[in-house]
Structures are given as C-alpha cells and as structure tokens.
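Service request form, structural biology core

Requester: graduate student, group of Dr. S.
Request type: structure prediction, single chain
Budget code: on file
Notes: please return the result as structure tokens.

Sequence provided:
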Amino acid sequence: MMNSEPDPAALTENVELIDANAPAEIADSAAVMTAAVRKVLESGGQDFSPFETPEYSAAQAEVDPFVFENCEFDAAIEVTGLDFSFDGLPDTMEGGRTAILFTNEGAESHEIAIMRRNDGVTESFEDLLALPEEEAMAKVTPVSGAFAPSTGSQALLVGDFEPGDYIAICFVPVGTTLNDEGMTEGTGEPHFMHGMQQEFTVS
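Core staff response, request fulfilled:
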C-alpha cells in the first residue's frame, strides 16, 4: 500500500502565504482552512480531524474552485470521483504545473492521490500496491493529492508533473462518509482495491 504524509515545513509556509494574500472574495473561507491546518500541525500531524468537519468542507468548496478558475497553470483538468472509479482523468497528458479540480459524485468520501513511478523501477503499479508500504514508497514519488469528503464537494490538487508513469489512487476505506456530525471512518478495504485507481503517462 502506498501513501504519504504532507511536509510540515511546506504546510507552514503555505499557510502564512495564504493568510497574507488571500483575495477578499474567499478570505473568510481561506481562514477556516488555514486554521484547520495549524491545528493539525500543532498535533504533530497526529490529529487530522480538523480536516474532517462540515465547516472545513464548506470552506474548501468555495476556495478550491476559485483558485482553479483564477490562478495560472500549465494545464487545468476536471476529474470526478465515483463509487469506485475516476472519470475525466486522461490516459496521457503533457508535463508542467497542472491543477486538477476533483469533484466527488459518489456516496462515500473520496480522494485522488497521485504517485510517479521512480525512474528505473520495473515493477508494475499492481505489483507495487502489493508491497509493504515502506518498500513501495521507496519506488514511487508522491506528487500531490486532494480529498473530497461528501457528495458534490470539491478539492484542488496542484502538482508539478514531469515525464513518466503515474497512478491516481484512492486510499479511503469503504464506508467513510461525512455528515452534519462530522466524519465517519470506514472499516472496509481501501477504495483502490475496488477499482478506484487509474494509470496515466506524462510526456
């Protein structure tokens, strides 16, 4: 299984930049998101519950589409998450700084996590997914990810894509949902084991 944690230093820097530069149209919602990030950082990356509230989801639903529409990227792609597949992700794409607006149209929570297979690695992604996490992560490079917790919610992924072989994958356990009371953690297999994974190539 492959997964990764965000870099605390990079998150702190990004939070400070957002607080200082958020456009007036989304400043309040951006502040909700940066406050949640700070709480996660204060926990040492052990408590991600600030990201799992209806308030955070509502703020993200305003901020991320705004950034997608108003910031400059080399490419902008819209991808839909379903139960259990990705729709709209091309099989091939050109390299560069790319924004992916991820919309959840499934009944469960979904994420899109993107990994690049490292140069020289010969195993297929299927083989890599069967490896222990530490061993698999030594053979791939995380690019970015986005989490859309409820039906209709949106999240933005921005990554620098260089030529190579990639996979988009959802690690969320079956049964995970967000309601008015907060997040319900699923206990089933991760969604990628039910088909929510897609390989693609960057040229």
